[in-house]
Amino acid sequence: MSKFDSSFFDEPQEHSLVKIEIVAKYFAAWLAIMNLKSNGPITYLDLFSGPGKYRNGKNSTPQEILNVIIRQQSVHKKVKVIFHESNEDSYELLRKLVREHKIYGKLKEIPEVNNQTVNTKFVSNMKIRDSTCTFIDPSGFKDISFEMISLVIKGWGNDCILVFNTSGIIRNLKIDEQASNMKKIFGNSGFNTLLNQFRNAKSVIEKENYLLAGLREAVSRELNSDIYFLSFGLGFEKSEQTCYYLVFFSKHYLGFEKMRKVMIDNSLTDENDFPLYYYSKIERQKQKQIKLDLMYKGNLQENLEKKLSADFSKSTIKIGELLDECLKERKYIYNNMHIKKSLQELEISKKIELPDCTRTRNKLTYQKNDIIKFL
């Protein structure tokens, strides 16, 4: 967090706890992979760190990150931790927390806690190494840009997790004084596209989806390449509206695969056990399904069935090859179980068949060498 709110860090709201868990679990998985694949240093970079802990004693993200590192002893000679916090009060609290943490002194490179103001120019002057995982959790949206995100994921093995304040952007998108900030995030053409899209948008979730797509496109344009991208909505504590999205950027399938699993594990699900990529305390407490017709324009499983039918129309393909193409090339946000469940429904409705299958199938099960034909 880039600004110190006197009450924000009293105690965490539930959406903050879910955010922290997703970031820490992904970092743990990423760190283990980098430890095996990277010969050089491994870096965790947090650009808007906050004080590291809530006043009620609960850990915020910096403390959880240090806890992840202390548990993976094999990385202690390779890992570098860099925290940035511009607010003086938060900075002093964070520096004290880091120095008192049991990880301090056990790493080859002592964790850095810096007090500079972070913006795109600052990041462009940083020497961001390969194998860097970056967390960007600003207060609001004015400090971020598509260029900043592109800079931190440019290197080999580099991933980024961004807290994307869609609610604030929706409130400010059409305000003339905010145009320069919006262009930093979406680019000039992307900003103009969003203004046109918002004129015809019928719901908040539709606007949120436009913002997420616009951000993805802006980063892809800057890098001149497609990227792996996931978003996870987190709801306000006392409202059914989305507070912000946790957005993941990577150029590598393995990172996408690991984050997909972490997000699915933390997500609310629909009646077919499909992940909504969303968490809300209100929805969990009410134990009711989020309005799928508003949020996702239909049933998730039916949508996946339609997508499979369209993507593989008239194709004949092995199950294993289909799964690889869905997950690696087409960047499906669902896992093997969800895809196979949708294939079962397509087979029941006679939209696919297994023409060469000779084994006994008591249930509609699939093996990787089964050949499937889309009718």
Features:
single chain; 375 residues; Arc Repressor Mutant, subunit A; eight-stranded mixed sheet; three-stranded antiparallel sheet; 15 helices; 11 strands
Structural description of this entry:
- With 375 residues, the chain is α/β, with parallel strands linked by helices.
- The protein has 2 domains: 14-292, Vaccinia Virus protein VP39 (Rossmann fold, 3-Layer(aba) Sandwich), CATH 3.40.50; 299-374, Arc Repressor Mutant, subunit A.
- It is built from 15 helices and 11 strands.
- The strands form 2 sheets. The chain has an 8-stranded mixed sheet, sandwiched between helices.
- It is globular.
Set out the fold topology:
Layout lengths: L13 H24 L4 E5 L14 H11 L7 E6 L3 H13 L11 E3 L5 H5 L7 E5 L9 H8 L5 E6 L1 H7 L6 H8 L1 H13 L3 H20 L4 E8 L6 E9 L2 H14 L11 E2 L1 H6 L5 H4 L4 H12 L4 E3 H11 L6 H13 L3 E2 L17 E4 L1
Parallel strand pairs: 1-2, 1-4, 2-3, 4-5, 6-8
Antiparallel strand pairs: 5-7, 6-7, 9-11, 10-11
For the biggest β-sheet, the strand order reads: 3-2-1-4-5-7-6-8
Low-confidence stretches: 290-294
Number of strand elements? 11
| Residues in helix, % | 40-55%
CATH superfamily of the largest domain: Vaccinia Virus protein VP39
Largest sheet: 8 strands, mixed
How many structurally independent domains? 2
CATH topology of the largest domain: Rossmann fold
Shape: globular
Short description:
The chain has 375 residues and is α/β, with parallel strands linked by helices. Helices cover 45% and strands 14% of the residues.
